[in-house]
Every structure is written in C-alpha cells, then in structure tokens.
From TrEMBL:
One annotated Gene Ontology cellular component of this protein: small nuclear ribonucleoprotein complex
Similarity section: Belongs to the RRM U1 A/B'' family.
Chain ranges of the RRM domain: 7-86, 160-234
Residue numbers spanned by region Disordered: 95-132
Species, as recorded: Orchesella cincta
GO process annotations (BP): mRNA processing; RNA splicing
Keywords, comma-separated and alphabetical: mRNA processing, mRNA splicing, Nucleus, Repeat, Ribonucleoprotein, RNA-binding, Spliceosome
Matching Pfam families: RRM_1
Entry GO MF terms: RNA binding
PROSITE patterns: RRM (PS50102)
Domain of life: Eukaryota
Main location: nucleus
Name of this chain's protein: U1 small nuclear ribonucleoprotein A
Compartment(s): Nucleus
Length: 234
C-alpha cells in the first residue's frame, strides 16, 4: 500500500560510518533548501543506523525534497527516500492527533535506564551536545569577510570560481560538495588551510557558477551562519 504524502520523509541506505551529529548537520544542510525543517531524527542503534527522518513544516517541502533528492549520492551512497508511515510526534501535536505511547514500553524504558545507571561509573559533567536544529529561523547574521582573503566590497566580474565566506567552524569539504554538486558543471571544493570560515568552489563555466551563486548566497548552513557566496577575485 502506498504511503500518503505527509510532513516527514524517511531516508535509508545512509552511510553508517558517519557520526550522528555530523549526519544531522549534513542532512540539515542539504534539505533546508526545500523549506523550514522542524526536526531531524537519526539514531545510531544497531536496528536504526543507516536511517533518518526529516520533519518539514509543510507537506509541499517534503514532497519536493523526496522528488529532488531521491538517489542523491550522500557520503558516497545513494539515498533512498519515501514518506514516513506515520506523522512525527511534533506534527501530531500540532494537528491535535498525538497519543501517548503505551505505558508498558515507558515502564520498560525506565527499568532499563535504572539498570544502566547502576552499571555506569561516575563521570565528570560535560556540556550537552549542540543540537544543529536549535534556533532554526533566527535572523541571518551579517557575513564576515577578510578583505585580504577575498574580493573587495564591489562585486567581481562573473567567472567559474566562487568564493564562500562566513562558514561555521564545523563546515567540511563533504558538506559543501553536497550543497554545490546539485548544480550542473560542479568541479570541486577547495578549503583554505588554517581557515574554517572561507572556501572556494569551482565550476566548468561562469554560467554554472552564477546559477549556484544566486541559489545559495545567504543559505544558512547553521541557524546562525548565513553563507555569503560571491565570484572569486581573478
């Protein structure tokens, strides 16, 4: 039976070697172009690894994401995407259709937690992991540019190389490749040693680079980092 379109897409065939936080940030980076994302669920348990759920605010966003990204090479593996069989808890609460999980499962979970707590050794407190979805929708921060490293304030003439600034510290080459290889003519991403905040992206021609520039200039890689894309200085 075909699953009806809904707010949540289910993705499998994901690379199981990728750490959970990196996986969630990368999924956010490539799927937020389709519309506001409310949640991303990725678990590393034996049963659920290699899978993820992306919850969109609008059903149309989920539909466009499914159609556009089906088979997209994500960490060297083609994604398999379909609509989730049921609404996420978040969407169910918004609709007013949320129902609590059976109490038996909750009680078993509590027992397991208590058992695990007894086994665990005391460990020094550490800061909670940063949720990549926290603060989604915050106002864009002004892009920070180093005039010594990139084009001046005046726009450079179109060419096949793009200059990226205001990149967050956790940006990786793979993350940028996923964003830019959606556009025809993509060749490569070049990071700058010792600088996490800037990078270069090369295309076959200036027409292709201009298309990517127009689409991704101002794209929020994280809720607080709006990437600035301009033509590189020749």
């Amino acid at each position: 039976m075909e699953v009806r379109p809904n707010h949540t897409i289910y993705i499998n065939n994901l690379n199981e070697k990728i750490k959970k936080e990196e996986l969630k940030k990368s999924l956010y980076a490539i799927f937020s172009q389709f519309g506001p994302i409310m949640d991303i669920v990725a678990l590393k348990t034996l049963k659920l690894r290699g899978q993820a759920w992306v919850v969109f605010k609008e059903i149309n966003s989920a539909t466009n994401a499914l159609r556009s990204m089906q088979g997209f090479p994500f960490y060297d593996k083609p994604m398999r995407i379909q609509y989730a069989k049921t609404d996420s808890d978040m969407i169910s609460k918004l609709k007013g259709t949320f129902t609590e999980r059976p109490k038996k499962a909750k009680e078993e979970k509590k027992k397991k937690k208590a058992k695990d707590a007894k086994k665990a050794q005391p460990a020094p407190a550490s800061a909670p992991p940063v949720n990549p979805m926290m603060g989604f929708g915050m106002p864009m921060q002004p892009a920070m540019m180093n005039p010594m490293m990139g084009p001046p304030m005046g726009e450079q003439p179109p060419n096949q190389i793009l200059f990226l600034t205001n990149l967050p510290e956790e940006t990786t080459e793979v993350m940028l490749q996923m964003l830019f290889n959606q556009f025809p003519g993509f060749k490569e991403v070049r990071l700058v040693p010792g600088r996490h905040d800037i990078a270069f992206v090369e295309f076959d021609n200036e027409m292709s680079s201009a298309t990517a520039k127009d689409a991704l200039n101002g794209f929020k890689i994280t809720p607080t980092h709006a990437m600035k894309v301009s033509f590189a200085k020749k």
